[in-house]
Amino acid sequence: MKRHPRSPGEFIRGLPPLDPDEFRFIFAAAQAAGSLRTPVENPAQHSVQVVDGDHIKGYRFTDNPLSRATFAIKEHCGEDRGKFMSASMRLFALGSIIRSEQCAPYRSPASATAPPEDELLHESILDVAATMPLNGSDDGWDIAEFFARVRELVAAKYPGEVDPR
Questions:
Q1: Which end of the chain is more exposed for a tag (fewer CB within 10 A), N or C?
Q2: CA 69 distance to own-chain centroid
Q3: Which residues contact 83 (CB under 8 A, 6 or more apart)?
């Protein structure tokens, strides 16, 4: 069986940073696809085959928000596998960041009439997510270090926009 010479953590730590503007676009496209606010192809129409010795196993993707978001990232990145992997891993890692207590000051309601789950995320979160090296863990980044970088960026680029409480 062919093995990749690096561990998954080493692979993830080696993923390149992304341009913050492009990552904000990718994030918006992934959200739109995941929530069906834009036309998307059903991921369940696609499959992959994995060869394991003499056996071939077929896997079909599930039609769910994460699969749709991932397909939107793939469509945007085209054949640039490094950008696709970096964008995908960064998007997946954002989940623990967004759910953390430290992120509360950087989230705001989308509108006065929007449901509570429709929130806006301050650009500084996406800027740091685009450029901070991933640490190879399941969470993607150390949360304290991530928000230290966010506070530095807000002070430099967005003064007065966020009250970090």
A1: N
A2: 9
A3: 16, 18, 77
Residue 61 has pLDDT above 50, yes or no: yes
Angstrom CA distances, 64 to 21, 41, 67, 123, stand at 26, 11, 5, 26
Tokens of 58: 């077929």
Region 107-133: what's the mean pLDDT?
A: 87
Tell me the per-residue pLDDT of 137-162, one tens digit each, with 9 for 90 and over: 878 899 999 999 999 999 999 888 87
SS3 109: strand
Grouping H, G, I as helix, E, B as strand and the rest as coil, residue 50 is strand
| Paired tokens of 33 | 């696809």
| Residue boundaries of the structural domains of the chain | 17-157
Q: Which of 115, 125, 122, 116 is nearest to 148 (CA)?
A: 125
Helices (H), 15-142: 20-34, 65-77, 81-99, 123-131
Which residue did the predictor score with more confidence, 7 or 147?
147
